[in-house]
Amino acid sequence: MNFSPLPLAVFVVDASGTIASWNRACEKLAGYTAADIRSKTLEEIIEFDTVAGATLSPPLSAPLSIAARVEIDSTGQLRCANGNSIPVRITIAPQSLDPDQPGTFSVIVIPHDGLVPPRYALIRDLPTADIIEGLPCVFYVIDQSGHLLLWNRQLELALEMTSEELPTCEVQYFFDEKERPEVVSKILAAFEHGHSSHEAELIGKHGKRTSLLFHCARTSLGELPVIFGTGLDISDRKQTEQGLRVRERAIYSSVNAIVITCCEDGKNRIEYVNPAFEQMTGYTLAEIKGRDPRFMRIEGCDTAEHRRIHDALLKRESVQVILRNTRKNGEVFWNDLRIDPVSNIDGEVTHFVGVINDITEARHYERRLHHLAHHDPLTGLANRTLLQDELKFSIDFAVRNKALGALAFLDLDNFKHINDNFGHVAGDAVLREIAGRLRTSVRDNDTVARVGGDEFVLVINNQPGDEQLADLMERIRQRVSAPIGVGGREILAGTSIGVARFPMDGDTVDRVMRAADAAMYHAKAMGKNNCQFYSNELNQIVHQHLMLEASLSKAIGNHEMVLGYQPKVDLRTGKVVGAEALVRWNHPQNGMVPPDEFIPVAEETGLIVPLGEWVIVEACGALKALEALGITDFVISVNLSPRQLRQRQFAAGLGRTLARLGVNPANLELEVTESQLMGHPDEAMQALADLKALGVRLSIDDFGTGYSSLSHLQKFPVDFIKIDRSFLGNVALDEHAVIARAIIALGHNLKLKVIAEGVETLEQLNFLRNNDCDQMQGWYFSPALSQRSLEEMLCSDARLPG
After folding, report:
1. What three-state secondary structure class fits 631?
2. CA atoms within 13 A on the CB side of 595
3. Are 569 and 577 in contact (CB under 8 A)?
4. Residues of 559-576 as b/e, b for ≥16 C-beta within 10 angstroms?
5. 483: which of 274, 300, 546, 675 lies 20 to 30 Å off by Cα?
6. Distance CA 290, CA 269 (A)
7. In this predicted model, what pLDDT tens digit does every residue of 329-343 receive, in sequence order?
8. pLDDT(95) > 80
9. Which residues lie closer than 8 Å to 626 by C-beta, 6 or more apart?
10. Cα torsion for 303, 306, 310, 312, to the nearest 10°?
11. Under 8 Å CB-to-CB from 652, ≥6 apart: which residues?
């Protein structure tokens, strides 16, 4: 390798200062010819500055020896051939890396004080400077003193040092103390043999560590022998290797047996097994390496599982099977085997990893359980013996965990008729179909049993509450009662269901079964094809719920729904400026049904959607009636349910309704609860934006009872917020007053109007006025009115007293 002359001068001198060799940079920097230098000593070329503060022997009048300057950071003047002098820094180091020249020293002369820094001056003169500086690795040149003559910025970054610091440091000190002898040995090997390679970790000035792969080669700069080389960052590789070592150790130490096979030429040969495999099977790696794992199989046994393994290996897919193999001593053992493919970087499957769990004991236990837990041969359901075991376990669990469970007895209402008229074959088909329907109606951890000819029993675990349990029983009744197709004919098999809850109706198997049996007979006495609960209270809940659901669907068409309008009053003027439409159900037998009884049912069944549409149409009709009376600035608000808000085309449908009825959108206000908005804020924001585009007004109802994010609240395009009545209960109490004040202030800061609902006392009214609330509604001013009464109030201009 040939370098152009380097301006970083390097001399090799003996102990007396006589120059033995030099590089061409010496000639270039000082302007001397080779003949000029050969006849000079170091003191003739360099004038050393006085060493301040040093205690010297001999006295200061005598010059220091070359050896004495080894530990001193010297400065001086380089005398040039043209008579000029260049300020320089001088580093003197023994030729420790050149065993053939004992007692010689390297003298590195570095220009400073405004001159071009040595590294950049060097690189500037190199024809390959751009290549060296742009290398994706460390580049360096070292002389026989072990000092850097040339390097690139990658080395500075790794060592966290500047170009001025690097020439004065011996390279071995860039490494950990334990690695230094090896580093020096490798550099000497390069000087002696021409090249060397090694891995080492550079340590930066501030502790940064970089793992590098070094390659060194010998060359010369002029007459100066040097080593140049590169260092490639292998930190990622080292980290990967460490990860592989950890994973290898994990495999080695795993309690699961692991076997790794190599797939070549369509065959799978064992490459590795861990100690757990050796212990489980009795075979050592040395005995079975290179063999196909199938040597442990039992021929003719578990053939379906072996076929699954074969197919998965051909398709290079994962597979999990349970099968039997033999140990070295001939003992048969059950194992749960999971096999997964391993791909190389090109995506080609080269290996398979098998993980084996010995499940022999568990398998024997399962077989004993299977033997004890007989099943019904016709339906495959549990029989009475297993039912009692499962029921006892479920009752004990419910007692310990204070959970709700249930036992349901189902008796087919007309099974004898089915057998008599359609035959026993059809009867058996009906029983199998009902068994299947029952299985799919409950969860895997519930139990379905057949305990008699046409009697089925369900053990239902861990129910959230009575109403959910009642809903589940009704769904099961409907599924069992649905037509069953047998031989081209439809057979109806209704069922009477009796339900006992545990531990409320009993905390033992006997008590719970007797309670469920009594409830089932009660269901038959009630006319069959129904469900009865052991407790009278729950019976009442079930009947009311079912009756309510059945009659609610007819209520709208039968004109049983009515709207009341509760006035909203402006607190500054006392004027009635709006009203909230409140739906009521005038049941023909039960009278007026409160909304908190039928609204939840409407939500659950989906009837809230047609009910909500009816309310909007009725409210729009009231607005048109008021408009005919000359009242055009009145606003009626309607509550929106979550189902309505989630309807994709709700806004478009509302727009069509307003246009068809000729109602000004600004006179309609839609109220949504805080919890509706915060459940899915992004979806709610889009839904509100679509509604706002119609021109209707929007308000947040029950504000303060949910968990609003102010960042979302600022983005919702609403006009009003309503203070929930719970915060006005007793405004004399600080905790109530503080929250109410905060809501009013928050609303005003967000440029929203604030409405208080549930105002019932003068004290509450005065509090709202004193805190600048905008509107109120409540019994203090007026209860909900009929449409006629509302019209009379507005025509008479009734107002809230000042």
Report:
1. coil
2. 13
3. yes
4. ebbebbbbbbbbbeeebb
5. 546
6. 5
7. 999 999 999 999 998
8. no
9. 632, 634, 791, 794
10. 120
11. 690
The 10s digit of each residue's pLDDT in 128-139 is 666 777 778 899
Give the whole-angstrom CA distance, residue 484 versus residue 430.
7
Sign of CA dihedral 676, 680, 684, 685: positive
pLDDT digits (tens, 9 = 90+) for 198-230: 899 999 999 899 999 999 988 887 678 889 888
Task: Tell me the CA end-to-end span of the chain in Å, nearest whole number.
Answer: 104
| Bond preceding residue 225 cis, omega within 30 of 0 | no
Q: pLDDT tens for residues 476-486?
A: 999 999 999 98
Q: How many residues does the chain have?
A: 802
334, 358 contact by CB (below 8 A): yes
Collapsing DSSP states into helix, strand and coil, what is residue 404? Answer: strand
Give the separation between CA 772 and CA 617, rounded to whole angstroms: 34
Q: DSSP of 543-596, one letter per residue?
A: HHHHHHHHHHHHHTTTT-EEEEEEEEEETTT-BEEEEEEEEEEEETTTEEEPHH
Cα separation of 76 and 58, whole Å?
20
677, 704 Cβ separation under 8 angstroms: no
Which residues is 447 bridged to in the sheet? 459
The pLDDT score that the predictor gives to residue 4 is 36
What tokens appear for 50 in the block? 């006085």
Q: Which residue has the tokens 């090694």?
A: 198
Which two three-digit tokens encode residue 686?
A: 């889009």
